[in-house]
Hints:
By secondary structure, the protein is mostly helical. It contains 24 helices and no strands. The radius of gyration is 23 Å and the shape is globular. Mean pLDDT is 83; it is low at 470-477.
Amino acid sequence: xxxxxxxxxxxxxxxxxxxxxxxxxxxxxxxxxxxxxxxxxxxxxxxxxxxxxxxxxxxxxxxxxxxxxxxxxxxxxxxxxxxxxxxxxxxxxxxxxxxxxxxxxxxxxxxxxxxxxxxxxxxxxxxxxxxxxxxxxxxxxxxxxxxxxxxxxxxxxxxxxxxxxxxxxxxxxxxxxxxxxxxxxxxxxxxxxxxxxxxxxxxxxxxxxxxxxxxxxxxxxxxxxxxxxxxxxxxxxxxxxxxxxxxxxxxxxxxxxxxxxxxxxxxxxxxxxxxxxxxxxxxxxxxxxxxxxxxxxxxxxxxxxxxxxxxxxxxxxxxxxxxxxxxxxxxxxxxxxxxxxxxxxxxxxxxxxxxxxxxxxxxxxxxxxxxxxxxxxxxxxxxxxxxxxxxxxxxxxxxxxxxxxxxxxxxxxxxxxxxxxxxxxxxxxxxxxxxxxxxxxxxxxxxxxxxxxxxxxxxxxxxxxxxxxxxxxxxxx
Length: 477
């Protein structure tokens, strides 16, 4: 007789999670080994506990593969964005953005401007990765030229990029959250706006003040002028170089699929490299895969522009695959179910509903390594608690994004954390304290939850779902 697998007890679950932290800390900090090896070791640790609980290896392998499959959308975007960065640097698009940014943006307001520009780009395109790899990369070059600390510039850039990732109707995470939460997309965005708008305004003011305090006068402008001269010597700079960016933003604004649009934009970058930047045809196509190398004579600009291409993303992709596998294994052995049952006992009011949902979402980021995993853990673990309290699912969708989407760049081994650190050249732990938009979203969401503020009423669609659910339960009874 085959015995059913047991769910992990709370003690076993805490042991698994504790060992996860120990392994990650030991490999990364103490042994200075690659984070990928740490995650691979975590696979075997979770499998060992899974076997102890009665799960067969075949079942766990299927769960692991399912976890990886659920994050393939992010991997495809990473491949496309890697190609885009490589060709847009070679084609002069990113260098032109840096050049014109230096010529029109005042150093004292730069941090605020960087956040706003990246926010507009991410809202228009729906992708934080694409925004960071293009407008964000340009902002990093401008900020360095103004002599501003790179960790502070990165914080402003990432803040702007995640405004759109969280709010744009074109964003995959926004659409996915609304779908999983079973709410209308624009009601989901309306609910989030109550949090995101004040968070955006406060963060923008904070970056403006920080920029005004840190900018110490004209000395930095000499660096900016040197940078502009170096870019002009190495690239053809004109407004024509910005055409691929305008085309991509327009196509995404018309709600065309992200991956083919980004890849089309990457091909335009290669074409621009051949037409305007002196690349041969084959050499320009090669930039899609391996990026490009440039020597402007300015060390930090060279390091900023010597990146991109699909190969630039391979280590990031491997890390995300391994992290997604961890999430799949934890779900397979019942870890999510145990946490959901625990949260159900605690979620007695809208404040606790909010906190437990945000914790469940962050659990997916921290142990699953991807925003997609956080959306699944946040909704699947806690959605029934909203039904029990008869609360609109727009509160669920808002809380999931606050605990999952915006916390993704805060975790060093998550897809967002690794991508931002790799692309912008600033370590995750260095920019986290300056990711002010993310922290403000978390704080404001919790305040609203515990004070019962800005909670939308159920609409007709939600009410009809409640009636259908009740009728199904009566039929089953």
